[in-house]
Amino acid sequence: MAFPEELLQRLKQSRVVAGFSVENAEHAVPLTRALLAGGIDAIELTLRTPAAMDALKAVCADVPEMFVGVGTILSPETAEEVKAVGADFGVAPGMNPRVVRAAQQAGLPFAPGIATPSELEAAIELGCRFVKFFPAEASGGIPYLRSMAAPYKHLGIQYFPLGGLDAENMSAYLCEPNVPAIGGSWIVKKEWVDNENWAGITARAAEVIKRLTKDNQ
Ligand SMILES: O=C[C@H](O)COP(=O)(O)O
Ligand SMILES: CC(=O)C(=O)O
């Protein structure tokens, strides 16, 4: 499946997606609720720890208000499992055609990671119109994105930048007409999760939303 328009619109409303990993699956629900309490209603839970799949199951079951994205989907089997668990969408750091096809067959809205025109063309050939731009800042940031995206503008490609984003540069990315949402790991500090500092995470999420609102005034 390509990335359905209604999900793109949902991401566009959220604007900011909080990326994180958890070492302890029991942290996922309170962490997700802490983000929601601060005004962030979209996540990218990365599959980089043994606890990740249980964490995903818990969030999908217990926090239906959250828009649940899953990151670091590196195999076709994982794409199928993520869909079966009930995630809203998936992403990956790279453009693996086997993973894109598996996501399409499973019905998981999926944005592969791209950082070059060749990777972008491979994604386009597979029917993708929404891609993750990763690693955004290290690749050259907004000037690079503009330059890379120019030849494909008529195809209506939309980009989801992650990698080196933070409160200082998020709004500049969101001003780009082909960027419905951005994300990053800077919002959820690992030590806050490890120390179960949910109030700290709510406060950080609220700061990010406040800054976004101020930047848009
Ligand atoms: O997809 C998740 C990436 O790790 C985000 O990059 P970041 O850690 O630089 O925000
Ligand atoms: C980095 C990234 O894009 C991911 O883990 O999905």
UniProtKB/TrEMBL annotation:
EC number: 4.1.2.14
Superkingdom, taxonomy of origin: Bacteria
Gene Ontology molecular function terms on file: 2-dehydro-3-deoxy-phosphogluconate aldolase activity
Keywords: Carbohydrate metabolism, Lyase, Schiff base
Associated pathway: Carbohydrate acid metabolism; 2-dehydro-3-deoxy-D-gluconate degradation; D-glyceraldehyde 3-phosphate and pyruvate from 2-dehydro-3-deoxy-D-gluconate: step 2/2
Reaction(s) catalysed by this chain's protein: 2-dehydro-3-deoxy-6-phospho-D-gluconate = D-glyceraldehyde 3-phosphate + pyruvate
CDD domains, alphabetized: KDPG_aldolase (cd00452)
InterPro entries: Aldlse_KDPG_KHG, Aldolase_TIM, KDPG/KHG_AS_1, KDPG/KHG_AS_2
Top enzyme class: lyase
Pfam families: Aldolase
Keyword Lyase: yes
Presence of keyword Transmembrane helix: no
Subunit structure: Homotrimer.
PANTHER family: 2-DEHYDRO-3-DEOXY-6-PHOSPHOGALACTONATE ALDOLASE-RELATED, 2-KETO-3-DEOXY-6-PHOSPHOGLUCONATE ALDOLASE
Family: Belongs to the KHG/KDPG aldolase family.
Protein name: 2-dehydro-3-deoxy-phosphogluconate aldolase
Species: Novipirellula artificiosorum
Lineage: Bacteria, Pseudomonadati, Planctomycetota, Planctomycetia, Pirellulales
